Fold:
Amino acid sequence: MKYPSFALNRLFTTVLAISFTTAVFAVGWHQGQSGQSATAISEAEAAGGTVKGPNTAAPDRYVYYPGTEVLGDEEIRLFACGTGLPAARRDQAATCFLVELGNGDKFFFDIGTGSMANVAALMIPYDFLNKVFLTHLHTDHWGDLATLWAGGWTAGRTGPLKVWGPSGATPEMGTKYAVEHFLKAYNWDLKTRNFKLNPAPGKIDVIEFDYKIENQVVYEQNGVTIRSWPAIHAGDGPVSYSLEWKGMKVVIGGDTYPNKWYIKYAANADVAIHETFLTPQELVKMYGQSPQQAIGVGTNIHTSPPAFGKVMSAIKPRHAIGYHFFNEESTRWGIYDGVRQTYSGPLSLAVDNMVWNITKDKIVERMTVSPDQAWSVAGPTPPPAPPTSGVADPLSGAMKAGRWNPQATDAQKDLVDSFMKEYKLK
Ligand SMILES: [Zn+2]
Ligand SMILES: [Zn+2]
Structure:
């Protein structure tokens, strides 16, 4: 281990100070590797440590390259795929955390607007990305479900999506209602894709649970336990989650005023994620809100930086992660100072594409270096066959009659003929 976790706080501060001008963010990473992972790593090592010769690989990796590191049997990889706000920003999508476990399981916690571009750049086969846990139903926490649903359907997911989420004060404020009506809103998309694609991956299974129940188990499979408890945010329904696996605990806090349940059930977390919102002054100066609105939003339904610090000082996680603000030079230091008034432990102020490797020994933060032009990667299960019958063609004869057929033949005939021959299709 290159940097012990107790040094991470000071190191991160230092790294922050240099990284935003140099685009080098990372904290060292040195995972004991064996077998396949060692091979994968040695072939793709980036700068780091001492390079022993002009034609040798660097021993440490300061960044994460998707698809090049096999997780250890007791290792968790946590990605920030969205850390921003409801208003769009190219640099920061809205809330989305992706957890990968050494047993192969992968879980989304929220899938906010714009976050799927970061997820796609990780080049994980869509078939493995089928479990989504929602903290609440604001668009900045589930707005990109549309992209995962339809995009994943076209690019390799072979079965339904599964969405877990809280109930609300009434049935129409709950996750089940939201997802059912999401599919109704996208009815044209659904019906037109159903005709050409296998319909199974276009389905969404919803598992709605009671938002009020404290520390209830909402998922238990394959050695993984996910629990939920209430959060205090805007209306009844929002929750926070913990994921426990192999004696480790990652807590994913959704939007909330500091709440007693988080203090109780996030205790002993290895990693505790919690919002730390823009200050009311920033909401006025930079987000265009009135002072009255800003103080209400910033301190009544969200958590201010000093309050985030108090929460972390109360629960004492091995590592704290703050998010849910536009993280830039003009904001981060004020927020950092606010947190540091009340908390001195290990801390990351998240930006998109940060990644943490978590084991019982250490927690290391790095940045992901991923391509802007990523393609979907095929998984081991081949895509299911398109439907052969039983689905009505949504394109009418009247529309088909408008097809332009030069020389009395299909405009695309030559290409179709040669493709059919190449792939032996009938
Ligand atoms: Zn919210
Ligand atoms: Zn939010």
In short: Residues 136, 138, 233-234, 255 surround zinc ion (ligand 1) (CB under 6 Å). Residues 70-368 form a domain with the Metallo-beta-lactamase; Chain A fold (CATH 3.60.15.10).
